[in-house]
Amino acid sequence: MKTIQLLLILALSFALTNCQNEEEEIITDTPPTESIVTGSPLAGLISRNSQSPTACDNVLDNTSCFRVVLPVTVTVNGNQVTVTTEDDYQTVQDLIDNTTGNDIVYFTYPITIQYQNFTTEVINDWNELDDAIDDCDDDDGLDEIDCVFINYPIVINIYNTSTQTTNTVTIQNNTQLYNFINGLNSGVIAAIVYPISATNSSGVNVVINNNSELESFLEDSIDDCDDDVGTWNPSFTTVLTTGNWYVSYFEEDGDVETSNYNGFNFTYFANSNVEVIKNSVTTLGTWTTYIDGGYNKIEFTFVNPDLESLQEDWIILEYNQNIIRLKHVSGGNGGTDYLNFTKL
Where are the alpha helices (DSSP H) in the chain? Predict the structure, then answer.
C-alpha cells in the first residue's frame, strides 16, 4: 500500500475516534429508529453533501477524487492564470475553449490537494500528481451536493448489532459527518436525532423531521448544485443506450437484494428493446420513458421472471455515463424501492 493510502486510512480512523463527542455507552436491546445503514441511498446522499467539494475544479485537475487548494497558478495554451476563487475556473475553461492548442492545464508547483475526507497532501511535481490520480478509487461521477448545508451540531444515535449496545455521537462539522458516514460498517446502525435544520440553495433555513424529508431535501438539491464548469450533459436515452449495464444496487421494501441480480448484463437499444444476458442465455424486454406527475420516469418489462421486481415505474433521480439512479414509490403501501445501474 502506498504511503498516501496509509495516511488517509489513519486520518479517517483518527477522525472517527477523536473528532466527535461520544457519550457513555448504554446497554439496550432496541435499535434506534430512522436508521441509516452503510451503502444505503441516504448514506450516499449525506456523504456527497458533507464531503470536501472535489468536482467543482475538474477543469483544473480532471478528477473528482480531490480538489486543488486555492490560490494556484496555472498555464493554459501559454496563458498564465492565478486561480484565486471558484469564479476563476470559468476563466480557465474559456482559455481551453477559445484558444488554439491543447487543453492541458499546467500547474506551478508545489500545490496542495484536498481529498473528499478533508485530508491534504502537498504535490511537488507532475509525477506526484499523476501518482495521486492513479491511487484514487474508481469515480462513479456523482458529484458533491455542495449548495445546501446541514446546520450543526447534530446528534446521532449508534446501535451495534453484535453487542446490542448504543452510544451517542455529536457531529460538529462536515469533516466529522463525512468520515462518520463513510466509516459505518454493516454491523452498525446509525440514526440522526430529529428534528434538524438545513439551509437550502436559496439560503432559507428549513426544518427536517425524518429520514424521508432529509432524503427528499438532498435529492431535490442535486440539480440546484449542478453548476460545474464544462458539465457533460447528454440525454438520458443517449446514456442508457450506450454500453452495457449491471444492477449495482437494488433495495425493495427496506431489504437490499442486489445479489439477486448478480450476473445479469443489460443492453438497452434506441428502439426501446432491451437484451438481458446471464450465463450465455439471452432474454428480451422493453423500456419506455415518460413524464408523470412532474417526474421523468422509466418503466421496464422483462420476459425473464427473475427480473419481475424491476418492472416498476421508476423515477429517474440522476445519471451520467457511469451510473443511473432510479427510485420507485409504491402507490399502495407507500414503500420506497431503489435501483442503480452501473456501466460495465
Answer: 3-18, 41-50, 58-61, 89-98, 126-134, 174-182, 211-225, 236-240
